C-alpha cells in the first residue's frame, strides 16, 4: 500500500505564502485592470455583437481555467503526496474497472462539451442575425491588394454609387455612422481575402463569386457604439502584398456622417469630380476624427523602388 506522506505544517505554511506571493506579483506586474484581465487579451469591442462574443470568450476561458486548476491540483497532489518510496514494494491502490468512476469520466466531459456547444451556438445565432431593412448598406470589394467600399443607396451626380477605393497614396476609408444598423455585402474580384476589423471581434472570408462558393456574403452589425478610427486588415494570405492590405473604419456621429455623405454626393468645385473620402473629411469641421491624416495605418505603396529605398 502507498503511504501518505505527512508534510510538516510549517513547510505547508511557507509553501502557501510563496504561492500567494507568486500570484500577487504575477497579477500586479501585468498592470491590467479588471476589465482587461476579463477580456483575456481581446481588444475592446465596439458593437453589441462584439460584446456578446467577448462574454462567451470570458466565460469559456473561466470554465477552461476552472477545469485546469482542478486537473493541475490533482496532478500536483498526486506528485506531492503519492510518491513512490524506497520501501514501497506494493502497487498503489488500483482503480481500473471502477464503473462509477469511468461513468463520471465520460458523463462529466460530455456535459461540459454540451454546455459549451449550447452557448457557442446561441451566441452565433445572435451575432449572425439579420434584419430586413438595415439603415446603411455598404458593399465591400476586396482585390489584390486593396479595398473598395461602395454605398449603393448613395449616388453621385453622374448616377454612380458613392465609392471609396484605396490607392498608393490614400488608405481606403470605410466611413460609417454610429448607432445605426449596418449591412456589409462582401465580395472579392480575384482570390480569397478576409474582412477583419479587430474591434468588431469578427472577421469573414471574402470570396470571389460567393454564391458559387456557397457562402453567405452578407452580415450586419446592430450598431457601432463608439466614434473613432479603427484599423481594418485582410486576414487571409492573398499574395505578395497581403500584409499591407489595410483599410480604416472611421466611425462618425450620425450628424457628421450625414454631412460627409452629403459632400460625397456633390461635385468638388476644385477638382470638377465628386468629393473623395479624404476631400470630404478635410472639408468638414469635426476635429481629429475628420482629419484625413488621423489614420491608424499607412497607404499601400506599390512602387517597389520606393519601398526598398524607404526600407
Ligand atoms: Cu487579401
**What is the helix content?**
25-40%
Rg is 28 Å
The span between the termini is: 70 Å
Beta-strand segment tally: 10
Q: Class by helix and strand content?
A: alpha+beta
What's the level 1 CATH class of the largest domain? Answer: Mainly Beta
Overall CATH architecture of the largest domain: Sandwich
CATH fold type of the largest domain: Immunoglobulin-like
**What is the 3D form?**
elongated
Tell me the count of domains. Answer: 3
Strand order of the largest sheet: 3-2-1-5-8
- Please, what is the oligomeric state? single chain
Q: Name the beta content range.
A: 15-25%
CATH H-level superfamily of the largest domain: Cupredoxins -  blue copper proteins
Number of helices: 7
Structural features:
311 residues, alpha+beta, Immunoglobulin-like, five-stranded mixed beta sheet, binds copper (II) ion
Written account of the structure:
With 311 residues, this protein is of the alpha+beta class. The chain is built from seven helices and ten strands. The strands form two sheets. Strands 3-2-1-5-8 form a five-stranded mixed beta sheet, with no helix packed on it. A five-stranded mixed beta sheet has the order 4-10-9-6-7. Helix 3 runs antiparallel to helix 4 and helix 5 (254-264) packs across helix 6. The relative contact order is 0.12. The model is unreliable at 306-311 (pLDDT under 50). Bound molecules: copper (II) ion. Copper (II) ion is lined by residues 142, 193, 234, 236, 238, 242, 245.
Give a short summary of the structure.
The protein has 311 residues and is α+β, with helices and mostly antiparallel strands. The protein has seven helices and ten strands. It has a five-stranded mixed sheet with strand order 3-2-1-5-8, with no helix packed on it. The chain has a five-stranded mixed sheet with strand order 4-10-9-6-7.
Amino acid at each position: 500500500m502507498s503511504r501518505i506522506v505527512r508534510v510538516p505544517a510549517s513547510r505547508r505554511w511557507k509553501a502557501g505564502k510563496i504561492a500567494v506571493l507568486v500570484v500577487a506579483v504575477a497579477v500586479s506586474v501585468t498592470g491590467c485592470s479588471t476589465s482587461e484581465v476579463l477580456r483575456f487579451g481581446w481588444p475592446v469591442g465596439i458593437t453589441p455583437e462584439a460584446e456578446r462574443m467577448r462574454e462567451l470568450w470570458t466565460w469559456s476561458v473561466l470554465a477552461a481555467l476552472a477545469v485546469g486548476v482542478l486537473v493541475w491540483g490533482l496532478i500536483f497532489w498526486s506528485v506531492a503526496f503519492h510518491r513512490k518510496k524506497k520501501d514501497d514494494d506494493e502497487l498503489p491502490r488500483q482503480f481500473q474497472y471502477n464503473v462509477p468512476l469511468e461513468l463520471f469520466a465520460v458523463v462529466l466531459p460530455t456535459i461540459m462539451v454540451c454546455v459549451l456547444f449550447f452557448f457557442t451556438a446561441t451566441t452565433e445565432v445572435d451575432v449572425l442575425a439579420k434584419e430586413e431593412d438595415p439603415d446603411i448598406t455598404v458593399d465591400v470589394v476586396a482585390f489584390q491588394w486593396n479595398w473598395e467600399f461602395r454605398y449603393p443607396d448613395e449616388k453621385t451626380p453622374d448616377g454612380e454609387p458613392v465609392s471609396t477605393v484605396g490607392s498608393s497614396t490614400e488608405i481606403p476609408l470605410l466611413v460609417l455612422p454610429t448607432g445605426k444598423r449596418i449591412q456589409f455585402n462582401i465580395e472579392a474580384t480575384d482570390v480569397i481575402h478576409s474582412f477583419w476589423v479587430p474591434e468588431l471581434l469578427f472577421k469573414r472570408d471574402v470570396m470571389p463569386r460567393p454564391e458559387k462558393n456557397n457562402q453567405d456574403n452578407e452580415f450586419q452589425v446592430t450598431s457601432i457604439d463608439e466614434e473613432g478610427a479603427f484599423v481594418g486588415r485582410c486576414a487571409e494570405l492573398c499574395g505578395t502584398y497581403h500584409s499591407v492590405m489595410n483599410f480604416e473604419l472611421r466611425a462618425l456621429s450620425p450628424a457628421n456622417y450625414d454631412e460627409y455623405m452629403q459632400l460625397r454626393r456633390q461635385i468638388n468645385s476644385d477638382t470638377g469630380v465628386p468629393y473623395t473620402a479624404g476631400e470630404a473629411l478635410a472639408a468638414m469641421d469635426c476635429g481629429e476624427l475628420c482629419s484625413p491624416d488621423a489614420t491608424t495605418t499607412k497607404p499601400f505603396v506599390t512602387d517597389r523602388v520606393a519601398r526598398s529605398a524607404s526600407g
